Amino acid sequence: MRRTPVLRSDQLTARYGVRLWMKAENLQRGGSFKLRGALLAVDRLAARGSRGVLAQSTGNHAIAVALAARRHRLPAVLVVPTDISAVKVRRIRETGAEVMFAGTTLAERVAAVLQLRDRHRYDVVDPYEDPSVVVGQGTATAELIEQVAAEGGRLDAVVIPIGGGSAVAGACLAAHPHGVAVVGAEPEAVPAFTAALRAGEPVSVAASYTIADGLRPDRIGDLPFALAQHGVAAVVTVDEPGIVDAMRALFLHAGLTVEPAAATALAGAAQYAAGRGVDVGVLLSGGNVEPELLASLLSDTGAATPADSPAGYIPWTDVPWGSHS
Amino acid sequence: MRRTPVLRSDQLTARYGVRLWMKAENLQRGGSFKLRGALLAVDRLAARGSRGVLAQSTGNHAIAVALAARRHRLPAVLVVPTDISAVKVRRIRETGAEVMFAGTTLAERVAAVLQLRDRHRYDVVDPYEDPSVVVGQGTATAELIEQVAAEGGRLDAVVIPIGGGSAVAGACLAAHPHGVAVVGAEPEAVPAFTAALRAGEPVSVAASYTIADGLRPDRIGDLPFALAQHGVAAVVTVDEPGIVDAMRALFLHAGLTVEPAAATALAGAAQYAAGRGVDVGVLLSGGNVEPELLASLLSDTGAATPADSPAGYIPWTDVPWGSHS
In this protein, which residues make up the domain named Tryptophan synthase beta chain-like PALP (chains A, B) (predicted)? Predict the structure, then answer.
């Protein structure tokens, strides 16, 4: 695991009116913060003599479990959705692990995992219900708070993207002792945490399409919800143009290429704190973005004639969703 | 100025057979390491009561001088080539400084600067002949050596891209006390340093087109050459496919978007040390890349079918040069 840097950007800070401290987990091994939880969980399973590991994921947890399994020379089977991004499939396969595709919903993947568990007698590394995973994910926030303090800063809040909920739950554990508020950011298209808060328990939501492939789980895990329900200070929902705009802004103004889930956190930070001049940490959760998706966003920015645009202004135009449409 | 992070990548290290330590000056204020020299030089001029500053540059030194001038509320005029990348023009103008276009050669820009100096009585911040600039650029290498040591490593060499020569000259000053070899990397299309070494003095070379807009100066500065002539351990020339391949590899395997000059350094590191398993620092000099250029490179990678390619292999295909062709 790497201690990833915390990055600043004057231009983004000026653009949003928020002092941003971005934890660059897009530069983490495996391309996302998910390695943190997977390593902790798989290390424990390996120590107990595991025969192999099995996990379902939208992609990044699968990459992370595959990497952690390789470290212990354990076989691994990863169940992913058919609409997974190709770069994530490649990263899993590069480790030597096996990929299985199962529908597009969480329920379909979970059913496939249960079948495979019976067949292989492998241990399941659940991305949401395994306490080791949740605690591991929290170390990204713990490091972020520590790194900001080392530079003489102090965070008012951290903003965490919400998929299945392990990141935000881990962040609550890590931020609580420091008195730093935890804010969740989820796509308007898949408001699973907002719905769970309303219902008082995890519920499956009717999900519409989101570009943020990592945030497509349509239901929050039970353990993450139990930990985060009273731990989060706020949850903001981000619409699709907002996600794309943040992804472009990160590229154009900070030179960072992140996946849409990470951009969702930045957009959420802007919505939560815009103009308040506070210090906000943002978990740039991952960088496993499809080159073609990024290319289509960049081709569309109108940045070829930047001199004609007001400084810092990025025109919004419709984005072709490519193979996801 | 920021203390930029030093980044590692298992995938690039495996790909090239070199333990890479990449100094991410693409994340520096202004998008390149050039701020280091410009700040030192402009701070000194401001302390002496300068009326304003003036500089010629392929782009990054101009951005840096403009930022440094704004810090002291000094007016600034920057002379740049007509084939400068649009993103660099935008970054200069965002500071409030004035941009003047003058041909495409170093000689044309220098002539324009002399005219403007007589007209405005501004101080010239020369990107090559000003000792403050050269010393400032060297701090990137000094930090890199220090940061690697802090992680328990030790560099065998640092690889520095060569444009006008201030970066490599500064690196020689910084690396000498540590016994770290300095290797220059320049485009085969503009082999100004190689030619100077052969001639025993700076000479203008017949330059052909290079994608590396920051490395287009067709002549090494006198001061940089004097400092680097005996200081560099080797100079490698990188062809255009090699620059593009490194730029793609940085994006696809390390999640980094850099400008072609920075990719030239990585390609040079690979050429210099491939398979030798040594520790090599690479100055990722800047990140001011045209979104359209990056988009065209990414669209062309064949990465849509990564599962069909051997792991880590990026097929080479012809790259449309866009407006530069």
Answer: 2-284
CATH code of the region B6-28+131-304: 3.40.50.1100
* Percentage of residues in chain B having pLDDT higher than 90: 84
pLDDT surpassing 50 at residue A323 = no
In this prediction, residue B300 has a pLDDT band, given cuts at 50, 70 and 90, of low
Q: Judge: A93–B307 Cβ closer than 8 Å, yes or no.
A: yes
Contact check, Cβ <8 Å, B255/A7? no
Choose among A2, A26, A299: nearest Cβ to B8. A2
Which of B144, B244, B292, B298 would best serve as a mutation to test chain A binding (most A beta carbons within 10 A)?
B298
% of chain B with per-residue pLDDT over 70? 92
C-alpha dist (Å) from residue B260 to B160, B163, B167, B243, B312:
13, 12, 15, 6, 20
Supply B237's token pair. 């020339």
Answer yes or no: are the C-beta atoms of A126 and A148 closer than 8 Å.
no
**CATH number of the structural domain A6-28+134-319:** 3.40.50.1100
- Output phi, psi for A71, to 5 deg: -55, -35
Can you tell me the mean pLDDT for B257-264? Answer: 96
- Return the percentage of chain A with pLDDT > 90, whole number: 84
Q: Would you kindly state where each structural domain of chain A is located, as residue ranges?
A: 6-28+134-319, 34-124
CATH number assigned to the domain covering B34-124: 3.40.50.1100
Q: Do the Cβ atoms of B89 and A306 come within 8 Å?
A: yes
As for the ipTM of the complex, it is 0.76
Cβ separation A27–B7 shorter than 8 A = yes
Kindly indicate the confidence band of residue A252, based on its pLDDT and cuts at 50, 70 and 90: confident
Give the one of A24, A86, A306 whose C-beta lies nearest to B90's C-beta: A306
pLDDT tens by residue, A259-302: 999 999 999 999 999 888 899 999 999 999 988 888 888 876 54
* Residues of chain B with C-beta less than 8 angstroms from the C-beta of A306: 86-87, 89-90
Three-class SS state of A236: strand
Residue B308 has pLDDT above 90, yes or no: no
Identical topology for domains B6-28+131-304 and B34-124: yes
Instruction: Find chain B residues with C-beta within 8 A of A257's C-beta.
Output: 251, 255-257
- DSSP of A112-147: HHHHHHHHH-PEE--TTT-HHHHHHHHHHHHHHHHH
Mean pLDDT for the stretch of residues B37-41: 96
Nearest Cβ partner for B307 among A90, A295, A305: A90
CA distance A24 to A4: 6
B8, B255, B299: residue with CB nearest A257: B255
Partners of residue B7 in chain A, C-beta under 8 Å: 5, 27
